[in-house]
């Protein structure tokens, strides 16, 4: 399967929203072609050492705004993961032959999903992101299905870790990596929150 590629400093996950402002001529051409042909393009992380091998397709959901000079604001949604097999530079924009893939390993248990979600929301609370897309009221969580991708795209983590999660081909393994991440950062976040509360009480009559 050959698809256009859009290298970005981002890791896109299946089901995750991706708003984009398209301004380069080559990508205006690419997006216009994708809209006309009703086909997705591939989002791959652009790294200093080159492109990531594994990416995720992006389906254009809607064109939010079209400008007179051809620029456009679009909203996309992550689709399927893929692995790049062969790059094609024959067009103004990059293309690639890719192999799509799904998880092969075991799924996480409902208990693990519930634990992972609870820790995720605690992290969001402690770092003050409750009012964004990662807030409890905005996350659509169904514990009867895998939640690792839903949590991963809102995760306050570096892109190397997010790319590691994208590459992982087992929901159980991906969920375990998320749990390890939360358990590693939460003690520090909790201590920071306690310190802030304590300093906020200084000078006040209890």
Automatic annotation (TrEMBL):
Pfam families: LON_substr_bdg. SMART domains: LON. SUPFAM superfamilies: PUA domain-like. InterPro entries: Lon_prtase_N (IPR003111), Lon_prtase_N_sf (IPR046336), PUA-like_sf (IPR015947). Residues 1-186 form the Lon N-terminal domain. PANTHER family: ATP-DEPENDENT PROTEASE LA (LON) DOMAIN PROTEIN (PTHR46732). This is Lon N-terminal domain-containing protein. It comes from Acidisarcina polymorpha.
């Amino acid at each position: 399967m050959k698809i256009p590629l859009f290298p970005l400093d981002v890791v896109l996950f299946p089901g995750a929203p991706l708003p984009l402002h398209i301004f380069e001529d080559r990508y205006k051409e690419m997006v216009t072609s994708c809209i006309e042909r009703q086909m997705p393009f591939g989002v791959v992380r652009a790294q200093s050492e080159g492109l990531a091998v594994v990416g995720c397709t992006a389906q254009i959901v809607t064109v939010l705004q079209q400008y007179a000079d051809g620029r456009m604001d679009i909203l996309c949604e992550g689709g399927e993961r893929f692995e790049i097999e062969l790059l094609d530079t024959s067009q103004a924009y990059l293309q690639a032959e890719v192999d799509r893939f799904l998880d092969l390993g075991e799924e996480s248990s409902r208990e693990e999903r519930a634990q992972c979600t609870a820790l995720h929301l605690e992290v969001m609370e402690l770092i003050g992101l409750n009012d964004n897309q990662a807030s409890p009221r905005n996350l659509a969580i169904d514990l009867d299905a895998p939640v690792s991708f839903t949590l991963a795209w809102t995760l306050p983590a570096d892109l190397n870790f997010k790319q590691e999660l994208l590459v992982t081909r087992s929901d159980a393994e991906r969920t375990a990596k998320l749990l390890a991440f939360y358990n590693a950062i939460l003690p520090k976040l909790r201590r920071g929150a306690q310190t802030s509360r304590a300093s906020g009480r200084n000078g006040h009559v209890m």
